[in-house]
Write a structure and sequence with these properties.
With 299 residues, the chain is an alpha/beta fold. It is 40% helix and 16% strand. Strands 1-11-8-7-5-6 form a 6-stranded parallel β-sheet. Strands 3-2-4 form a 3-stranded parallel β-sheet, with helices on both faces. Strands 9-10 form a two-stranded antiparallel sheet. Helix 1 (13-33) runs parallel beside helix 10, helix 2 packs across helix 10 (277-298) and helix 6 packs across helix 10 (277-298). The longest helix has 22 residues, at 277-298. The termini are far apart. The structure holds NADPH dihydro-nicotinamide-adenine-dinucleotide phosphate.
Amino acid sequence: MNSLTMSAQIIDGKEVAKAVRKQLKSRIATLAERGIQPGLAAVLVGDDPASATYVNSKAKACDKLKLYSRVITKPADTSQDELLKIVDDLNKDEKIHGILVQSPLPSQIDELSVTLAIDPSKDVDGFHPYNVGLVLLGRPSLLPCTPFGIVKLLEHYNLDPAGREVVVVGRSNIVGKPVAAMLLQKGPMANATVTVAHSRSQNLPEITRRADIVIAAIGRPDTITPDMIREGCIVIDVGVNRVDDPSTEKGYRLTGDVDFEGCASKASWITPVPGGVGPMTISMLMYNTVTAAELISRN
Ligand code: NDP
């Protein structure tokens, strides 16, 4: 992009994700002195290529940090009972401190039943209702990875949300709702005034223009345009969308929910896609696996 038209500073998720992983090394070394190697199990059901890519990159991230990792791959016709049995075995497995079951799951499996079956102390995705409840109460143990990554990004750049207007666009259980709940808490890197908007919100541009911090978790390219943001605001783009692009080798490129070029000329800080929130999610998963190992080994 032409630097003359861009005023926003870049929130570099790759750099911050690297810093998070570096900080984890001393915690991993302390655990190793006590003979503990944090272990993460990822269960993949079916043959969705995107899910397989996610699971592989999580396993690779474990290897790089010398964490133990196990990938369990099951066919698309796996029954709910079979999956629940796998989760139960992992709950009891002392080598495993973190369990994640990659979504989406095939239609014969009820996702909530699987989430409920995971031992909350091993719920490194932070999706179990017990952990969701603790986040709402302001007493979190394991935070959901993407919202946690967003807070870490703000923290790294000293962008304290306290007292500021935050508008979260999107109300999913994995991003929108938990990030809103986290920023609302009394405590460090929180204390924000939070609004959550969604597809039924009227006058979205009016709502987002009030924001000091806009968090877009929508799943639609270019939904947040420059006319929808205030001069000098902070823009966090969670979206990962594939758009056709015949000029690339793969025939597509990844883009966020924000018109990056346009908004970068108006915002003070902005996350790119790729290279913003995305890299944080995996680092926070590693973080949670180490935290889970510390907490479990303390009991
Ligand atoms: P969901 O589809 O679960 O939720 C999308 C939300 O956006 C819904 O609340 C929906 O409203 C709202 N929405 C849709 N269209 C509009 C619109 N035009 N105006 C306002 N709100 C709208 O998505 P997720 O939260 O799971 O993911 C959001 C994006 O973030 C996706 O691109 C996903 O790939 C990406 N993602 C990235 C991650 C990362 O690590 N970087 C991790 C997780 C997700 P309603 O509730 O009314 O339907």
